[in-house]
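Fold it.
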Amino acid sequence: MNRRRDVFQAIADPSRRAILLLVATHSMTAGAIASNFDTARPTVSKHLQILTECELLGQEQKGREIYYYINAKKMKEVSDFIEPFRKLWDDRFNKLQDVMKKYKSKK
């Protein structure tokens, strides 16, 4: 069964977010990625599998090595989905900040 994973469940895990940050600038092998963590390599491999299944990471084979890289198109889709919520909360925090400034000036 080839079950497709949810992107937001994938990025909910701090280790997977750390992996995304690692490969954001350049592609890396599983071993190079695993060397940045204090967990067993199979654990990192599972994280890579999840990130690949939800298409946040892509794979490219170079010789005997498989390099993982960020899938910018998928990351943009996630960002585009989140953007309206970010704007909504920015507006709410700005309004709260205005209320707090008025409250402080009354004291």
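The mean pLDDT is 91.
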